[in-house]
TrEMBL record:
Entry protein name: Kinase-like protein
InterPro entries for this protein: Kinase-like_dom_sf, Prot_kinase_dom, Ser-Thr/Tyr_kinase_cat_dom, Ser/Thr_Kinases-Pseudokinases, Tyr_kinase_AS
Family matches, as Pfam families: PK_Tyr_Ser-Thr (PF07714)
Organism: Rhizopogon vinicolor AM-OR11-026
Any GO MF annotation of the entry: protein serine/threonine kinase activity
Domain Protein kinase: 23-297
Matching Gene3D superfamilies: Transferase(Phosphotransferase) domain 1
Key words, A-Z: Kinase, Transferase
The keyword Amino-acid biosynthesis appears for this protein: no
Source organism superkingdom: Eukaryota
Amino acid sequence: MAQPRNIDFKTPLKEIPEAQLRRLHNSPDHSGGFGDVWKCNWSTGSRNPPAIVAIKAVRVTDMSQTALLDKTVRDIRREAYVWANLKDDHVLSLHGITTCFGVLPAFVSSWLTNGSLENYLRSHTSLPTFRKLDMSRQIASGLKYLHEKGIVHGDLTPNNVLIDGNDKLCLADFGLSMILAESGNPTFNSCHAGNVRWLAPEMLSVPQPGEMTRPTKPADVYSYGCIMLQLLSGQQPYAILTNVFHIFGARFGGTEPFVHIVGVDDGHRRYSLRCLSAHVSSRPEVQEIVEFMKAELRKC
């Protein structure tokens, strides 16, 4: 994560004890590229009823590198403190962290009842254009807030866009991929099977020895463009490919993520493809994207 700025660090990082948390199922409710998400009850002991929360726990398969794990613990705590102080309608709020879900601190946030955008789109296949544009605007708005705070998301996919019971979209898991990649633990990699469809091409480049490829704001914009075009067209990037190795092959072979785009307004198609430009400097900044989406919504 880039050095954050313009954040008013007034909210302390809450440590939630194990005694206040109860898993609602015996297995994770969702498993992603880096970890598992558990649906839990959070009881504070007050008169308020237990809250339903989501706990994101990072999976660790290599426990032998204790020094690297210790560093990752410190980094996660630092970034959790940043996250706890972010306040935006389209950025998922962090309630705190807990240490009872593995060797690394786990993130505790609200459980958003409509789940991920990826799953939502599977069951909502006939959304009106206005709704698709507004969803695109909400994602861009959350990304604009992060970028203005000096934060690069680094893993923007439909699985990291969550939807609450009022159909409001929130960005989640920003910065986590970079923390884990920087840890030096081979268990983690910023490029994983769950995000390769939406990953900017420069993120697949081979770094110089001793260096690593870092996520950037333009890389976030590329990922956003993929999500926007997925919303508008109803097709994932590289939709005809189901095997991750085939997707990697297509990417290294120069295949475009969207080959046949049908049923999409020409202006919307052109703008989303600007976000997907192979030339980083040709991609719009997210502030411009927000204004474009607002203007398009006024036309509806």
